Hints:
This protein is an alpha+beta fold. The protein has 3 helices and 5 strands, in the order ββββαααβ. The strands form 2 sheets. A 3-stranded antiparallel sheet has the order 2-3-4. β3 (17-22) and β4 (27-31) form a beta hairpin. The longest helix has 18 residues, at 63-80.
Amino acid sequence: MKLVIPEHVQWSEDDGKMVLLDCKANRYYAVSQSAAIFLKEIQRNGDMERVVQYVSERYQEPLQKVNQDMGVFIKELYQRGLLIQK
């Protein structure tokens, strides 16, 4: 599955903290450090499996747990229009 952050979603990062701006809805969202890393990898790569593998290795967490956690996160992003699938 190819994931894409839509053009109407901008982000700002400072000291490892990321804020997303939905320019369509004029809403800000603060995300955790691990979520920020996930989103940067999505932007760079777009491949869910590779991104989950990367996050799993980086945080030394079981692949299944990361896949489950990121699945919940992705669902929330889809519902808010902050991530699309291509």
